[in-house]
Specification:
This protein is an all-alpha fold. The chain contains 5 helices and no strands.
Length: 126
Amino acid sequence: MLKNNCFHSEIVDLDFLNRNLSDDIDLYVEMISVFLTESKKKITTLKKASDEEDFTLIKEVAHFLKSSFTIMGLKSKDLLIEIEELSSQSKDIKRIKLLINLVIDNYHESIIEYERMLSCFSKNNN
């Protein structure tokens, strides 16, 4: 487990990161920074795909986000699985849009938490 008081959360599940990154704080910061940058692009693409009812793109992005959200401890895996399944059948766009909005809400809450962690780390190490 990472021995740094900045990297704790009740919003995101840090177990995977703690188990796999040991005490490598620099790698921890890098993982969070990359996630913040890349996930924003994917969320924007997911929202646009749902607005355009592009089932193929929705499925692709949901699949990508499912693994990255799981690694980063976001609590949206089951929602993304359902989005992926519905979009692969090209049906129930209303349900897909509802699920995407829930994923986006969870994403925004998690982003705030990760930004808090990075800010805390930055303040304590300067």
